[in-house]
Design brief:
Strand content of chain A: 15-25%
Helix content of chain B: 55-70%
Distance between the termini of chain B: 27 Å
Oligomer: heterodimer
Order of helices and strands of chain A: HHHHEEEHEEEEEEEHHHHHH
Low-confidence stretches of chain A: 12-19
Main location (chain B): membrane
CATH architecture of chain B: Up-down Bundle
Mean pLDDT of chain A: 89
CATH architecture of the largest domain in chain A: Sandwich
Number of domains of chain B: 1
Catalytic activity (chain B): 4 Fe(II)-[cytochrome c] + O2 + 8 H(+)(in) = 4 Fe(III)-[cytochrome c] + 2 H2O + 4 H(+)(out)
Order of helices and strands of chain B: HHHHHHHHHHHHHHHHH
Number of strands of chain A: 10
Subcellular location (chain B): Cell membrane; Membrane
Number of helices of chain B: 17
Largest interface: A-B, 103 and 103 residues
CATH superfamily of the largest domain in chain A: Cupredoxins -  blue copper proteins
Largest sheet of chain A: 5 strands, mixed
CATH topology of chain B: Cytochrome C Oxidase, Chain A
Helix content of chain A: 40-55%
Mean pLDDT of chain B: 93
Membrane topology (chain B): Multi-pass membrane protein
Protein name (chain B): Cytochrome c oxidase subunit 1
Radius of gyration of chain B: 23 Å
CATH class of chain B: Mainly Alpha
Structural class of chain A: alpha+beta
Largest sheet of chain B: none
CATH superfamily of chain B: Cytochrome c oxidase-like, subunit I domain
Chain lengths: 372, 536
Amino acid sequence: MKHWLYLLVGIFSPTLAASELPLNMTQGVTEISNQVYDLHMTILLICCVIGLIVFGLMFYSMLNHRKSKGAVPAQFHESTKVEIIWTLIPFLILVGMAVPATSTLIAMEDTSDADITVMVTGSQWKWHYKYFNEEIEFFSILSTPRDQIDNKAPKDANYLLEVDKPLVLPINKKVRFLVTSEDVIHSWWVPAFAVKKDANPGFINEAWTKIDKPGTYRGQCAELCGKDHGFMPIVVEAMPEAEFDAWIAGQKQAATEAAAQAEASLSQTLTMDELMAQGEQVYMARCAACHQPNGAGLPGVFPGLLKSPIIQGPVGDHLDIVINGKPGTAMQAFAKQLTAQEIAAVVTYERNAWGNDTGDVVQAADVSNFEK
Amino acid sequence: MNTTTQDTDATLDPVSHDDHHHDGPPKGIMRWILTTNHKDIGTLYLWFSFIMFLIGGAMALVIRAELFQPGLQLVDPNFFNQMTTVHGLIMVFGAVMPAFTGLANWMIPLMIGAPDMALPRMNNWSFWILPFAFFILLSSLFMEGGGPNFGWTFYAPLSTTYGPDSTALFVFSVHIMGISSIMGAINVIVTIVNMRAPGMTWMKLPLFVWTWLITAFLLIMVMPVLAGVVTMVLTDKYFATSFFDAAGGGDPVMFQHIFWFFGHPEVYIMILPSFGIVSSIVPAFSRKKLFGYSSMVYATASIAILSFLVWAHHMFTTGMPLAGELFFMYCTMLIAVPTGVKIFNWVATMWRGALTFETPMLFSLAFIILFTIGGFSGLMLAITPADFQYHDTYFVVAHFHYVLVSGAVFSIMAAAYYWLPKWTGHMYNDTLSKWHFWCSLISVNVLFFPMHFVGLAGMPRRIPDYALQFADINQIVSIGGFAFGLSQLLFLAVVIKCIRGGEAAEAKPWEGAEGLEWEVPSPAPYHTFSTPPEVK
């Protein structure tokens, strides 16, 4: 009952609607998003007024010009004057709408003089962010646990709108996005910025934003991109410049450490149990979406890994497809997404899980040697 | 005198004794398979369309059941995508378009005083290939890997490189649908141009005939484009071409340009005949001539021409240049002008008429209001900066369902109630039909209106699961969906009851109706107007 009330209130009171149940467009945290919101509200209002007049006349006619009330039909059925009037007036209203729309659009398309540039790359079903001029890049993947999606665990507040590593941006800086894709078309959308840009494979699109307020802003992929289109959210953390600079420094530090760790892992030899445990984690996060948690795949769409010739065959072929992917299919090249250690673990896992008892153990050094 | 001459107005041509005709239809199934009679073929189209409407509707209910709650409950995401895709394809190509073709077959010869369609054998053919097209499409759902799962818009490369193995079946079924539509359109054009009764000049044509004539031209122009684009998808997927693959010098965005060059006129193909229907029904139950007949004709033609200049408004987020965005925004906004003229003309027709509210009128009035709401959201979508926020959300889903369900489908319902007495010779059950109307009207709004809200709030379309803040509204929407689906069974009941019997219908059951179709008896005899009537 309460919700119906909200719906009604929502229709008549846009300000309330923005604050209570999500019923209206996000006003957003950029100058552009506010302009877009105002444009939306203006046009909505014009439509409502026209609607009230037209429907009002219709209902007046329906109530008063009834045969049952003894109405006698009039004879008029033509008037060039009236036709011209109701062609011209809507035309002028449209011109009135087009003026602010045009100026907003021109501002939205002006990507010049950006302070920082971020490359946004979509792939099935994750986003990759790369900061230009900084040696920082990472994937951003849905972090909602599978159990919540399968209704086995209670859903938390940001269900389906949370990622492992959000994109971090400074406020009050003009950020330019270069948007592209590695496979199918995706669309990078953050409602709070009024930025929605398609990620087209083989082409690069431009967009920009300048965030006014620090905060966490969430969006989703907006173009159907296959099975898990509904499961590739976008999360942006906006922070003051000083914090952002600290974050950048931290990331660089972390990258150096990770590189050192990767180097160290090459000389380590892990036990089968250790590899299996790590491999299962990697598999569930990166592989299970297509090949399924039980390795059975989706027949006709994604190949199963049980008793598959690649799993049963030489380790080299298996490493090859994981590292380099299979062009022209959804199988991505994981060389730049996973460390040698992770690839070793997941390959070991696949070769020994679900009754694939090959007994093969792959170490990080094997992966590294194969890549060479 | 044989039946043939009784069918026509015998006083017009007393020497018409054409004894070569058979008296009535042959019996049994062969009547329907071999028929070249426009009324039989019209009936086949209409039943086919209704069956497809129920199948496509059942798929929509699978979608709504899954979306009733957040989380994955009933179907996996891949099957969910197949449901959204095939639901769209079936409703567009299997339900709405064949329904209009069925109405055209039944009514155009009756309205222009022709004995049949101009090309009756092709007419048979254009219907009978359709069941095969949809058999192929539906059977692909049972293939390993499933049917088409890339949306009814089948954007490349999701439908090419990344498409399921069944894509070839999808392509062939769309080819067959296209051939059927083109043959139907040729038939309509040839019939209207050549077979009008003496005195039926262009500006005396009923608006349903006018709107269908223009629709038929749109079909002939854009169906080959659709055939071209599906063929390119086919060769990209199976024969290593790269029309839409950047790695081979192609462009995935070019797919969208070609598709929407077909796709946008296509949406007018699905609404122009509705305008014709409503322009017949509103004057009949207002007992007053249609206001601004000639401006209605010109408005229809303007909408048709403009429909070729607006395709890229479906693609504002693809990264078009500013000049392109502005051009397509302005052209799209311009369509509101002739559309507005139509709505104003209908209201002016009602104004100071003597209105009654039989079921066809109720559906037509609901059409005018709800289609206008869909028009408003269309205007909002035309505004490029705002479209960046609306695009690919439930706001778009709400928009096109308002124009296609409470628009096109409601007008088809209105047409069915309006002409059922002519088709069956019986009046339909009035009470039941009113129940059908009110249940449909309420549920269609519970179903589609709240979609505007979740769309504005940021829920993307074509997702099988959603964030928690969208849960309440999705629940309401799903309830509306099931209510709307069930309401349509009432329609089935009304139609079957009406075919089986009921109060006998007069030749002209509606007091204010005008047109040649009301001059033949009800039910319309198997052969009508073997001798052309004279139109004064």
